[in-house]
# Entry
Amino acid sequence: MFMNNMGLAFFCSGGTLLSSLFGKSNDECVYAPIDGAIIPLEKVNDTTFSEGLLGPGIGINPTSDTIFSPIDGEITVVFPTKHALCLKRKDGLDLMVHIGIDTVNLQGKGFQLFVQKGQKVKKGKKLVKFDKALMQKENYDMTIMLIVLSKEDFEITFADKDKVKKKEPVYYAKKK
# Structure
C-alpha cells in the first residue's frame, strides 16, 4: 500500500490529536536512514531483497556515506562484517539496514560502527559510516536496503516518493 507524501508526512508528524483521531502516531513511522533516491525493492539488484525473501522494504541509492537510525529502538544484531545491522522497536517491529550488495565480501573493510548490539538508540542516531569511494572503486552496488523482518505482525504503508532525506518518513508500520 502506498500513501502520498503529504499523507505520510501528516501521519508521521502528528501528536496526540493525530493519535486520538486516527489511531496513528509518529511512533509507528519508519524514517530514512540516509539521503538518496528511493528504489522500489523489486528493482534492487539482488534477488534476496528484490523477491522480498527477508520482508518488504525499500532500497535507497545513497548520496551520502552515513547511516542513521530509522527508529527509536534497540540494536539487536550487528553483523561482524559491519555491512548490516538490525533494530527492534518497542512494539516488536524488526528492521534490517543493509549497506550495499555483496559488501559482506569486504569483511568489514571500509565500515565504521558507532553502535553495538544491545544499545538503545533514538531516531537519527549515527549508526555506521561507510567508505563510499572505496566501494564504488571496487564496483559494489551501494544500494541501502531498509527491510521489515517482522512482516507478518505489521501492516506496512509506503511513502510515494522518489527522493528522501535522512529522518524523513519512508513508511508507516502499524502492529496488526
